[in-house]
Amino acid sequence: MKNKIFLLLLVFAFISNLHSCKSDDDHWSPSASVNDFVWKAMNSWYYWQSDVPNLADNRFGSEADYEQFLNGKQPDELFFGLLYDYGNTDRFSWIVNDYNQLQNEFAGQRLSYGMKYGLVYVSQNSNQIFGYVQYVLPNSPASSAGLKRGDIFTRINGIQLNDSNYAELLGADSGVFGMGYIQDGQLYNSNDEISLFKIEMIENPVFFSSVIEQGGHKIGYLIYNAFRANFNIELNNAVAELKSQGITELIIDLRYNGGGSVQTCSYLGSMITGQFEGQSFTQLTFNAKRTDYNSVYKFVNEGKSYDDELNPIGSFGLSHLNLSKIYVLTLSGTASASEMLINSLKPYMSVTTIGQKTYGKTVGSVTLYDSPSTNYTSSTDGVNPNHKWAMQPIVFNGKNSQSQPSPVMGFQPDIEISEIAYLENLPALGDLNEPLLGAAVNQIVSGGKSHTQPGLYSSGRMFKSSVELERFGIEMYLEKGFEINP
Fold first, then answer.
1. Are residues 172 and 242 in the same domain?
2. What are the tens digits of pLDDT across the range 135-168?
3. Which of 111, 123, 345, 434 could form a disulfide with 427 if both were Cys (CB 3.0 to 4.6 A apart)?
4. How many angstroms separate the CA atoms of 225 and 213, rounded?
5. Domain final residue, candidates 158, 178, 202
6. CA distances from 353 to 22, 253, 439 (A)
7. How far is residue 10 CA from its own chain's centroid?
């Protein structure tokens, strides 16, 4: 028994020594100093820490073994090597060398053409793809160029898009887009070309809202494209406006919403309802080392507002619609916090999904900085001033009040409609002839008797939505300085 106790004390002493290693030793390189942060923070927070042998507490026999393991590796090389079943189980963890850029992107600020698009395979057996515009932001390069929803592009800088070159071509800061069109179910190239360049933009995710009056129903329609905390007030104002017009049903369009803030997701769930204050909206579960962070987000009456640097700046009262059913429009890029909203509302109300299968992401992250004194969760208190590396690893799993996660393969829609089938003449968002919106309205007014004409384009299949191409586009995360059991 004494030998076991002695062994445990040795293990504890070694781990304590790792966490107090000096970074100014002669053999301790600058990259190893960053790597020291990467290993320790991942060892502490990573959701699958117990499944990664190189993150085990007893992985190293001595401090020298530990330093040898870290030295010679670039921080991103070390990070991705520590992920569990990378590319399959963990498809979502990230590391960046500038946390300011990360925070800007979480706030919706990034270089952009000002349009979101979908990428579609030209045919079932081809590797060639084309893009179609899903929506265009106002006052953007895309809007200035006259692009609109439904426009099709097939090539960039004269190069045909395919599933190998799309990331490089679309990731550039500028490009000449070769246009195309669909006629009688066939894709054609046109001679039209549009030059675009990216600019720094902050996108307001509350894209559009309206009230549709049909068959004695007053139907609210809200297009919401990201759960961004710095636009909480705008979201609440949009819901308040719908409430003031006396809506009786709500259609939430999350087709182009890759997720975002868990807290903002809980606010929207509270706005949609109002009758469940204090009850569990969603549950977050962390690894065995961080069980004290296991949290329950509840339906609430008051929310926090944030500035564009995601610092809290105040609070506000939430508007409530007190609904008992909603209709949600989905696409393959509907992910993470969007799926959490669907999953967390299902135990309390009728949720009808219309469109295509969602992405399938049940896990979420926090931003980890090199600030050991704050458990690596603060970029301001005690952060290492010698570098700006930060990580966004998966650290929690989300489940609804009945302890059910979102399906890992995504939600199958209750009513399946392919947006790309209508690319020959894709109506504007908000137009009742728009196929997904029209199907939702028909479901409300006619009990599901659809008047939507079948789409004509059946050759292609969806490849990716642009939100899937954006770094942190498919995310579910907690704000800086997140609270336990908020």
1. no
2. 999 999 999 999 999 999 999 999 999 999 999 9
3. 434
4. 24
5. 202
6. 54, 10, 11
7. 42
